[in-house]
Amino acid sequence: MKAIEVKKLSKTFKSKTKEKGLKGSIKAIFKPKYQEKKAVNKISFEVEKGEILAFIGPNGAGKSTTIKMLTGILFPTSGEISVLGINPHKERKKLAYKIGTVFGQKEQLWIHLTPYDNFKFFGAIYDIPEKIVERRIEEYKQIFELDEFINTPVRGLSLGQRMICEIVASLIHEPDILFLDEPTIGLDPVIKEKIRVFIKRLNKEKKTTIFLTSHDVGDIEKLCKRVIIVNNGHIVLDDSMENLKYHYLNKKIVEAKMNTKINLDDVDGISILKDKDYNLKLEVDLTKKSISDAIKLLDPDKIIDINISNTPLETIISNIYKETKE
Amino acid sequence: MLTAVKNNFKIMFLSIKYNLMRCMENNVAFMTSIIMMIFNNASFIIQWLTIFALKETVGSYTLNDVMLFWAVSSGSFGLAHILFNGIHKLPDYIEEGKLDAYLTMPKNVLCYVATSSLEPSAFGDLIYGYLALIIFNFSIKNILLYTLLIILGSLIFTSFAVILNSITFFIFRFSYVTEALKEVFLNGCLYPDVIFKRAVKIIFFTLIPSAFASWIPVHLLMNFSLNKFLILIIFTIFIIILAFIVFYRGLKNYSSSNLMGIRG
Amino acid sequence: MKKYLNVAKTTFNDSIQYATSIIFRIGGFTITMLILISLWNFIYSGNDNLINGYSLKEMIWYLLLAEIITFGSGSKVATNEVKNCIKSGNIAYQVTKPYSYPIYVIFKFIADTFIRFIIFLLVATTLGLIFAGPLETFNIQTLIISIPVFFLAVLITGMTRILISLSSFWVEDSTPFQNVYSKIILIFGVFFPMEMFPSIIRTIVRFSPIYGVSYGPAKLVISSSFTLFKEVILSQIIIIIVISILISIVYRKGARKLNVNGG
How many pairs of residues across A and B have Cβ atoms under 8 Å apart? Predict the structure, then answer.
């Protein structure tokens, strides 16, 4: 059994449109006109158990809508969903026991209670016996070094500490799948790293399937083995991280500082991105030319400094967004 | 099935307990709001003292009888806002998309939402209700019956509010109308039935069921009748079921056509 | 051009929002009044025509007229705005400005109240004509002498509200005190004219602001008496002088407290 199976899933939103002015408002009351927007359009994908999947896309691409359908908050317009063999919108409660959700900026904790009391509350929500809850809290306390703030009311915690508590609260019932919607938004690098390490560990030790959306390339690069990119309600890429990098990383960037000005022209496989004074920036297509070809072209004797790098993942992703726009 | 119900009650109980802890964080503000509410309610005794100085009885009611309307209404309202204040925040939850978090929990959404909030000043209403009963109509039997009746009253008022607030699932910014109708419901409870004309009475027995939350309970306290009591129980069960039906119908709308589609 | 259209659109939306809230406030006012009218109808049924000198018609008009002063002056300018200004500490900037903050708030209050008051006046008049019928004694002279009396009544309400809001310099929240004030006016001024009370309470009401804020104006319209006009105006002026002095003392003390604490 797969963790998640989605077939031709679509979601169409209807919104009322109104003509301008008072006349339009009155018209809209008696004869409302609807505008249809396809937020998610016939997407199909599968997630294996134990996978860490990044589900990414620009704002409004349909990420949240998809997550909401997978967790049973929204009904799909058409298509089929099976999460752990359960149909989310038919058996929402049954599914709820098996999944955990963290919605980035929507807090689920009681802010006047301590994390400890919150965890116990969530334990009760999932009908877990007290003893087991306490054992799990103890376990998470070790992993996340919760000691220093487990007895401070949530309102007194930093943003990062709160997010850690949100995640722990959503794991108290040891779900098979964890849905994380923007878990590291607005956090400092140290906390981000801590959360990433923990997610990785969770996946490794408890075989928890992770379904992650994020705008943070660091999250995706460091955590995920597979990426699905959505744009305008469509899946535009569903591939492993390695393939993504390989496919788009067959280009290298060569930046060089020269001691004299040299004049270069584009050759097949090497294009000049920047040529300003003594600084040069070249893009080398490795399928056609090698790095040494590029260095020879520059004349190695005249090079003061050289830097060879990959195209950053961020650029790759934003290029995919741009290419698939409309 | 039975364990599920039990577990739901456990969550409701815990939520109410935690809300109460939040109120008590600021003791001075908590006590002030309670005392102010008691004074606020008590000031209406002057209204009725003055009326009874002008006229010996209102219908067949004496001052003590009229105070029963106050006792029952403020007790029911107080209890409703202590136990189920979250219902009055439902329009905000719907419009701000906060309902999502409740939907990912394996518990009854309506029960969980209802107990998610508590209004501190409601304790003033509840205390005033008992005070009014003890001062004007004391007897052990009355206190026991009153306690039962305000539980029913709070359930009726809450169900009425659930039905009204569920309309927000279909019509945005409906909360203005809801607030106005709740005000009518309250006024219907606070004034004795005899002052209203027939047509108005019919409305209070049907569309705005103040009669069941206040008039019938008052009659039961004055003169217990098993028939009336059974009618009240049946109506309470009926309106609770109706509230669940309307709420879940609305929730379906939230999940399918979805008001916040634009938000993505 | 687009910029100006946006401004127009925002303003239009604001006024729609404002209109909606006014409509529902009118709804609330109407319902409250209808229930109180039912109550008086019932009290008068099977009774003599007059209770303490008031006919049912006069009683309903009294109720409506006294209530519009409360409802019509329910502007947040004198209550929440002043409270928030003090609580947020913004008052410190007001102190340094070359005008008196209390006077500034009073003018803002009057401007904010004007339209609202006219709307409630129209609603109340309509309700009165439907449920009580026209007052026979009412004429042009009554109308003319009523205008300054109602204006001063609203002014006193606003000033009292500001005075109560100034307590925010010392107490955590002034709202409960505003509610107490509303309740006192409602019970001793709006629900009943002072003739309905025992003599002690009647005397207290006669020499309290309630006389100038609700009893005086409402009774003036019903009785059309020029003698009453002189009495009401005189007490209103005295009340205004007293409240002005109180506001200036309290504000000065509050501002000084602010300076001592360094804002």
Answer: 75
- Tell whether the model's pLDDT for residue B2 goes beyond 90: no
In 3D space, the residue among C169, C204, C172, C211 whose CA is nearest the CA of residue C189 turns out to be C211
Question: Cβ A73–B104 below 8 Å, yes or no?
Answer: yes
pLDDT for residue C61 is more than 60: yes
- For chain B, which chains pass the contact test of at least 3 CB pairs under 8 Å? A, C
Q: Which residues of B touch A (CB under 8 A)?
A: 3, 7, 10-11, 14, 18, 21-22, 25, 97-98, 100-101, 103-107, 252, 255-258, 261-262, 264
**CATH code (residue A169):** 3.40.50.300
Closest CA to C127 of C69, C170, C68, C55: C68
Give the closest-approach CA distance of A316 to chain B in angstroms.
24
DSSP type of residue B195: G
Regarding whether A265 and A229 lie in a shared domain, the answer is no
- Assign A17 a pLDDT band (cuts: 50, 70, 90): low
- Does A289 map to a domain? yes
Residue A27: pLDDT over 70: no
Q: How many domains does chain A have?
A: 2
Query: Could you tell me if A103 lies within 8 Å of chain B, comparing CB atoms?
Result: yes
CA distance A103 to C136: 68
User: Structural domain boundaries of chain B?
Assistant: 2-263
Domain region containing A261? 250-310
Q: What is the mean pLDDT of residues A56-63?
A: 85
Q: Using the predicted structure, report yes or no on whether residue A131 has a pLDDT greater than 50.
A: yes
Domain extent listing, chain C:
2-260
- ipTM > 0.90 (yes/no): no
Q: Is position A326 within any domain? A: no
Task: Determine whether the interchain pair A125/B103 forms a contact, defined as Cβ–Cβ distance below 8 Å.
Answer: no
DSSP class of residue C112? H
Model confidence pTM above 0.90: no
Partner-chain residue, chosen from A15, A59, A125, that has the shortest CB–CB distance to B105: A125
Q: Do B183 and C24 touch (CB under 8 A)?
A: no
Q: Cα dist. B164→A248, A326, B92, B214, B225 in Å?
A: 56, 42, 13, 19, 31
Structure-model confidence comparison of residues B219 and C49, the more confident one: B219
What per-residue confidence (pLDDT) applies to B263?
Answer: 37
Same domain membership, residue A268 and residue A220: no
* Model confidence at C127: pLDDT above 50: yes
Residue C187 has pLDDT above 90, yes or no: yes
A195 and A256 part of one domain: no
**Within-domain flag for A176:** yes
Q: Does residue A66 share a domain with residue A30?
A: yes
Whether chain C has a CB inside 8 Å of the CB on B99: the answer is: no
Tokens of B146: 């009153």
The C-alpha angle with vertex A176 and arms to A170 and A179, in degrees rounded to 5, equals 50
Strand, coil or helix: A231: strand
Position A103 in a domain: yes
> How many residues would you count in chain B?
264
The region of weakest confidence among B202-216, C28-42, C151-165 is C28-42
Which of the other chains make 3 or more beta carbon contacts under 8 angstroms with chain C? B
Question: Distance (Å, rounded) from C-alpha C107 to C-alpha B118?
Answer: 39
A116 touches chain B (CB under 8 A): no
> Residue B163 pLDDT > 90, yes or no?
yes
| % of chain C residues with pLDDT over 90 | 55
Domain termination residue (choose one: A203, A227, A245) = A245
